[in-house]
Design brief:
The complex is a heterodimer of chains A (255) and B (127). Chain A has nine helices and no strands. Chain A has 255 residues and is an all-alpha fold. Classes of the chains: A mainly alpha (255), B mainly alpha (127). Chains A and B meet through α2, α3 and α4 of A and α2, α3 and α4 of B.
Chain lengths: 255, 127
């Protein structure tokens, strides 16, 4: 039996290479790639040797994983040594990645807020119709329904790194729509909304302050989403990440 | 992590230099898993952990005790396997290995001497 083709070997080597990818993250591609290639070679040789020795796949899997686990302190210590020796990624790339992470958190939380606001407005409209507060749905309800749909689609797209730019772009009109329509909808279907909007409007001059406030928040959020979409635009920026050493190749597959 | 005494080698480093020299004399160079296999055969039977072995090799390469180079990809491809990182014990490595063996031998002798001396000076001891 060829140990290289067994699922036990494949799963063990995938885990070991995954761990290797983790502790070589942020290291310069050359160093990370060399470590990955050396481990891949070791795993391959181990499987070939186990085959020749008649070691069963389950024991091979256990031996490989035990070797990896026992070496964890040394892997981490090696990593610190490499970082101390200045073999980490340059600060610019690290800064770029950190900015990307912050942006992801902002877009996802912003998307959740836009979706929640749109759904809340829709629920209020349905409730007002149900209990007879209004005889017909406000004209903006269609826009809010569209915003809710866009927000959910945008959020789903933003969850995947590859389509994050598109998700962010889709969330922009959703945010603008919610900002544009929220004041009007609340004024028509919510008693609290009427009170709040009337109080704000009593201090205003020519423009309706509540509308300006709501629209400003919506447009501001939309501009933020557009900015994030531009940041993630395909091909605009490449951050060397955990796959710095190149695509993971199963050690069973020849180079 | 264990701290190295100045001018000495870790036991694993000495083992790598010893086993590496043997493998190198047979094949011209040695690689990680071949080393792990031989170390296991001469030790408690367990293969050295990935992290332990490759960290030691990396440290020894930087110290100039061994030198490393990647195998010709065409050779690896011809044999249907990933390319190996090949190591050779350098002159500096051989010197450090011999010095460490000499140091260990003198330490062992120094440890054995007082006991032997005490025995030879004991009352009634046979000269």
């Amino acid at each position: 039996m060829n140990a290289l083709r067994t699922p036990q070997y494949r799963s063990a080597s995938r885990r070991v290479l995954g761990w290797c990818g983790w502790y070589t993250r942020d290291l310069v591609p050359e160093v990370a790639g060399e470590r990955r290639d050396e481990i891949a070679s070791d795993l391959h040789e181990h499987a070939v040797w186990a085959d020749a020795e008649g070691i069963p796949p389950t024991r091979l899997r256990r031996d490989i994983l035990l070797r990896a686990v026992r070496g964890i302190p040394h892997d981490l210590s090696w990593r610190s040594g490499q970082l101390r020796a200045g073999r980490g990624l340059d600060p610019m790339s690290l800064g770029t990645r950190r900015t990307g992470n912050v942006l992801t958190a902002l877009v996802l939380s912003g998307g959740v807020m836009v979706a929640a606001a749109a759904v809340f407005l829709l629920v209020r409209v349905v409730r007002a119709l149900w209990i007879g507060d209004v005889v017909e749905a406000p004209i903006g309800a269609v826009g809010v329904a569209l915003a809710a749909l866009l927000a959910v689609v945008g959020l789903l797209l933003a969850l995947r790194q590859r389509s994050r730019w598109l998700g962010s772009a889709v969330l922009a009109p959703a945010a603008a729509l919610v900002g544009l329509l929220a004041g009007d909808i609340l004024y028509r279907v919510s008693a609290t909304g009427v009170l709040l909007i009337s109080r704000l409007s009593s201090h205003g001059g020519g423009l309706e302050p509540w509308w300006v406030l709501s629209l400003s928040i919506g447009v501001g959020a939309a501009l933020g989403f557009i900015g994030a979409a531009v940041w993630w635009w395909p091909g605009a920026r490449r951050v060397v990440g955990r796959d710095a050493g190149g695509p993971a190749r199963m050690p069973g597959e020849s180079a | 992590m264990a701290r190295r005494r100045p001018g000495t080698l870790f036991p694993l480093e000495l083992d790598i230099l010893d086993v590496g020299t043997v493998l190198q004399s047979a094949d011209g160079s040695f690689y990680g898993f071949a080393l792990a296999k031989q170390l296991a055969a001469g030790g408690d039977g367990g293969l050295t952990a990935h992290g332990t072995l490759y960290k030691a090799l990396s440290r020894m390469t930087e110290a100039g005790l061994i030198e490393a180079s990647w195998e010709d990809p065409a050779v690896a491809e011809g044999e249907g396997r990933p390319r190996r990182r090949l190591y050779r014990v350098t002159g500096e490595g051989a010197t450090a290995r011999d010095r460490e063996h000499a140091r260990l031998a003198s330490e062992a002798a120094a440890t054995a001497r007082p006991a032997g001396a005490a025995w030879s000076q004991a009352p009634g001891a046979i000269a």
